[in-house]
Amino acid sequence: MAKRGPYGKGIERREQILDAALRTIAERGYLATSVAELAEAVGLSQGGLLHYFGSKEELFVAVLRRRDETDVAAAAEYTPEAFIDVVRRNARVPGLIELFTHMQAAAADPRHPAHDYMRERYRLGIEGFSHSLRALRDAGRLPAHLDPDDAATTLFALADGLQSRWLIDPSFDMAAHLERCWHNLIR
User: Fold this and answer.
1) Which residue in 6, 14, 186, 167 sits closest to 99, CA to CA?
2) What is the pLDDT of residue 10?
3) Nearest CA among 180, 149, 146 for reference residue 162
4) What Å distances lie between residue 88 and 93, 94, 117, 162, CA to CA?
5) pLDDT number for residue 73
6) 58-82 burial, b if ≥16 CB within 10 A, otherwise e?
7) pTM
8) Which residues contact 17 (CB under 8 A, 6 or more apart)?
9) pLDDT at 183 over 60
């Protein structure tokens, strides 16, 4: 049931903007998408669109958050296989990989709106993945020597690096490479 009143309408409008931005960036690419085009796609002025987010950078961080929510919802479990499947699906949305890579670089500046998002994304992602790996290890499904925290950190860093490489050479199969590295890690 939709919320009523101006607050509910604002939330609904924000969701429409995020859906349109996610689609457009996925299809056209981050660098080929302007805020003016996104605003036009949802029937707003550029200023009207930014009213819902504060700035262009905050809009793009919100798009990445939405993408993360979609990825988490698509994964039945937080397993290495599910993680690799997310990387495989990401190859079908190069514009979102492009956006992520640009925002990741910009996040090195603590003043950038993506900084806190990236820190929280890594903290939560590695925590959740590590917890899952620990449960798999304790159930005897992974080698006893595997350190879940190190493995989760390594796989997140590797996936991000592979995405950067893939942007330069889209013929590179990042999911297959990540899968081989995972199998080498658990030997």
Assistant:
1) 167
2) 84
3) 180
4) 10, 11, 23, 11
5) 83
6) ebbbbbbebbbeebeeeeeebbbeb
7) 0.89
8) 38, 42, 44, 49, 52, 53, 59
9) yes
